[in-house]
Amino acid sequence: MGIQKQNDAAFISGEWKDKDWQGRAAAHHKGYARLLQKGKKNRILKQLPALHEEAFSVINCLNCAACCKNYSPRFKTPDIKRISKYLGMKESRFIDTYLRLDEDGDYVVKQTPCPFLGTDNRCGIYEVRPSDCERFPYTNEDVLINRPRITLKNATFCPAVFYVLEQLLEDKQVE
Ligand code: SF4
Ligand code: SF4
C-alpha cells in the first residue's frame, strides 16, 4: 500500500462523510475522464476486483446510502415480478404504488429517497432488490470503463467509485 493509498484509506474509513472527498473528486474530474477514455483497459480491468474489495473494506454503505437517497434504480420486468411476489402484491398494484416511467421508458421509483430505504439505511427488500442495486456502483465490472459518463456521475456521490478511480490514477502504468 503506497502512501497515497494509506492516506485514502484513512481519509475514507475515518470520518469520511465529514471530509471533502467530493471536492477532490471534482478537482480530479478531468483526470478520471482521461483515464476512462484513454487508459489501458486490460490493465484497469485486472485491478478492479482487488480495488473493489479494498474500497468496500473501508467504506460501509450503511453509513452512506447516497445512491438510495438520491437516485433510482431501473425496475426491469424480472425485478418487478420478484419484488411484488416478495411483498405479496399484484404486479400492477406494485407498479401503481411505487413506480413511474422515466424519459427512457424504464420504471423508476416515483420519488427519492427510495421508498424501500429504512431510516437505518437498510434496504427493506435487500434479498430481492433490483439488479441495478445489486450491481451498483459497478466498481468490479467493465461498465466502469465502458460507460464513462455514468462512472463520472457516480464519482460525484459514491465514495467507493471515488476510491477506485483515485487508486487507478495513482497507477502511472494505466495510461
Ligand atoms: S453511494 Fe456508494 S458507498 Fe454510498 S451506499 Fe451507495 S454504493 Fe455504498
Ligand atoms: S431497492 Fe433497496 S438498494 Fe435499491 S435503491 Fe431502494 S433501498 Fe436502495
Features of this protein?
single chain; 175 residues; mainly alpha; two-stranded antiparallel ribbon; 3% strand; binds iron/sulfur cluster
What can you tell me about this protein's structure?
The protein is mainly alpha-helical and 175 residues long. It folds into two domains: 3-63 and 137-174, no CATH class; 74-135, no CATH class. 56% of the residues lie in helices and 3% in strands. It has helices at residues 3-13, 21-27, 29-38, 41-58, 66-70, 77-87, 91-98, 131-135, 143-146, 148-154, 159-170; strands at residues 99-101, 107-109. It has a two-stranded antiparallel ribbon with strand order 1-2. Helix 1 packs antiparallel against helix 11 (159-170) and helix 4 packs across helix 11. The longest helix is centred in the N-terminal third of the chain and has 18 residues, at 41-58. The protein starts with a helix and ends in a 5-residue tail after the last helix. The model has no long low-confidence stretch (mean pLDDT 90). The structure holds iron/sulfur cluster (SF4) (2 copies). One iron/sulfur cluster binds at residues 59, 61, 64-67, 136-137, 157-160. One iron/sulfur cluster is lined by residues 59, 61, 64-67, 136-137, 157-160.
